[in-house]
Write a structure and sequence with these properties.
The chain is α+β, with helices and mostly antiparallel strands and 154 residues long. It has helices spanning 26-50, 107-128, and strands spanning 75-82, 92-99, 134-139, 142-147. The chain is built from two helices and four strands. β3 (134-139) and β4 (142-147) form a beta hairpin. α1 (26-50) crosses α2.
Amino acid sequence: MVTVTAYIIAHLNSSIYTSPIMMWHPKLTAFLDQLKDLFDEVDNHIEDLYGDRYPLHPVRPARGETSNPEADGLFNIGANFTAGFISETGRGYIIDVSIVTLERVDDNVRHEIYEAAKDKVKELLPIYFPDRELNVVRDGSHYKIQGDFSLGNV
């Protein structure tokens, strides 16, 4: 069994496949693609609920104007892997919610959006990863996906 721990410092909100010196195992690529699809669905859900609450940043394309939900609309929602060296809960994927506006977002509204994103991730994890035990835990001021990140037999 090989785990993702030592091999990833992945940021799903950027193109992880562009490094000319980094090679990715096909099972890792498949896992990250599924995770990206999950977060695209979360992004669309949060856009449906809150996308009209604030004006977009002037240089941000409107929702649906690009082929990638991370690159348009009011929200950019994804995950960043952390090895969790100084974390109370260890390694996992930090849920990252960015609101792309120049207006000040009230802390209560920001919290409500973050909670809605976390709830949607919890709902979708067993759908996108039915053969893995993954859960969402609180880690300081963030939520983190933790559980079975193994690649199986490689």
